[in-house]
Amino acid sequence: MTRIALCYFGISRSLSFTIGSIRNNVIGPAQAAGESKSYAHLYRQDKVVNPRTGEDHAMDPDEYRLLAADEVLLERPDACLQSRGFDDFKRFGDPWKDKFNSMRNLIHQLHSLDQVGRAALRDGADVAIFCRPDLQYHDSLAKPLASALAAARPSVLLPFWQPHGGHNDRFAICVGRQAIETYSQRISQAAAYCETLGRPLHSERLLAYSLQRAGVRVRTIGQTASRVRAGGTLATVCFRHPVLRDIANSVRPAVRLGRQMLPHLQRKPKPAHLERAD
């Protein structure tokens, strides 16, 4: 039977609000599809402060228990920053321009992915579902999971929305050891990404860089999920396909011009008065 790993990473800041969707749309389909085991690498903290998202909210440090994961590794925030070269990445710039707070969060995310992915690989997972516990999953993963199980080669299934110049990194279904390694261990490619491209560290673009470099096939899926802030506020997300978005952006100026011209086109011309020739 196919071994499916459920891999939770990051922080559980809003899990009491998202756990229902995780049970229905992630855990349920995984259990129905094969032999599943769940792993979690999370940061143990009692407060979330994020100026960029406007969060300053207390957290229940034991909220992670709602996941009922088979294996849980809890880590203190910031413990990984030095070993992961946080200060080295700063020299490439701060794309968020928030005093490297967002980059700090990204390093935490990538480290957490690496740790939970290694746990899944240790047990010989054939398929791994990587999901953040602070997302409200609006759609069941049953269909893309069935498609993943039928895949004949290593591949990664990613949401099509919000690629931000790379690939969406909110959640993923990875098929095969190579795909699981490449997706979860991409922090090992972060220095090469910055050095080779001369760019600041960027989450979605690093993912695209790592998958392309490893030759892992990428397939996009339409399932959606929204971030839930600490305290239960649902973040606004645009789920429009980037191609449709670009088309809409390209025709919008023409539509605006047409609306401006329409009143003039609808005016009735004044009748011409001809002078009689002598």
Protein described:
By secondary structure, this protein is of the alpha/beta class. The protein is built from eight helices and eleven strands. It has helices at residues 15-33, 86-90, 101-122, 142-149, 177-184, 190-197, 203-214, 242-266; strands at residues 3-10, 35-43, 47-50, 55-58, 71-75, 127-131, 135-137, 155-159, 171-175, 217-221, 225-227. The strands form three sheets. The chain has a seven-stranded mixed sheet with strand order 5-2-1-6-9-8-10, with helices on both faces. A two-stranded antiparallel sheet has the order 3-4. Strands 7-11 form a two-stranded antiparallel ribbon. Helix 3 packs antiparallel against helix 5 (177-184) and helix 5 runs antiparallel to helix 7 (203-214).
Strand and helix layout:
Elements: E1 3-10, H1 15-33, E2 35-43, E3 47-50, E4 55-58, E5 71-75, H2 86-90, H3 101-122, E6 127-131, E7 135-137, H4 142-149, E8 155-159, E9 171-175, H5 177-184, H6 190-197, H7 203-214, E10 217-221, E11 225-227, H8 242-266
Parallel strand pairs: 1-2, 1-6, 2-5, 8-10
Antiparallel strand pairs: 3-4, 6-9, 7-11, 8-9
Helix pairs in contact: 3-5, 5-7
